[in-house]
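= Tokenised fold =
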Amino acid sequence: MRKTAFLALIVLIFSLSLNAFTLGDLGEFKFEKANDNVYIMHGPEEEPSKKNEGFMNNPALIESQNGLIVIDPGGNYNVGKKVLAEIEKVSKKPIIAIFNTHKHGDHWFANKSIKEKYPDVPIYALTYMIEQVKDNAADTWYGILDRLTGNLEGTKPFTFPSQGVENRQTVVVDGQTFIMRHYAKGHTDTDILIEHVNSNTLFIGDNLITNRFGAFDESSSIVENIKLLEKIKNQEDGFKKYTLYVPGHGPSSGEISKTIDPFLNYLNIIVAGAKKAYENDIPSYEIKSEVHEELKAYHSWDAYEGQMGKHLMKAYSEIEMLDF
């Protein structure tokens, strides 16, 4: 009898291993308990590619008494299926709500995988974000991710968020309280930061990224992103000390020095370099090598070579506009 039970256990473990969310030499990805009833799956810290199948964000899971709440389930239908399988390893409770932090498809295209199984699940996002993705932002990101990953099959038609929220709005789902925070510009103009009151967790979205770099598009502001991170760090404008800070990409932590500071310091160095170039009436590329030397701690971050110069140009243009 004992031998039979042991063999059954071995079969179960082997079965779970076969069904694990695995991305080649990038390893296995699963939800791990990060804070009270909060679980995070930390995605690969790199740009979207065929290798990572377009998965590189941090899906989050909050377990309530009667169900599960998901934040940013991932970047396509196929990834969403794998994320959903990992969710079901944490709990068999139904998914009762989804939150999307901003318009970029690498965070919300996987809505479709969850909605397929739970057709009545409400999906929350900033009202303006919903307008943007229904206009052209979804198609723009579909084109980007399809070109880079080749893994968008099944993602269309898009599953858009269905419930618009606004700045400072409180949303309660099965006893779990979430406070929305929106600023006109930061990583994009459609971001919500989500404070989960029950666990004292702050989900910052792509306003905070660690170990990799992404683009700042036309709707973003490096200067305003800095102001936002400083407000979080200094506990201003209603922010407080949180037990856990969750970035859109990169490791989560309860320590400011490990979460907020690295990206904030990077942005401050970029802006300082851009200001110096502007004040000396020289183009940003002429100061790039000097800024590069100041950014030695970031040379190993994914996409540094491709993004740093663009960030410097973006900061320069913002400083120029502020001068007018």
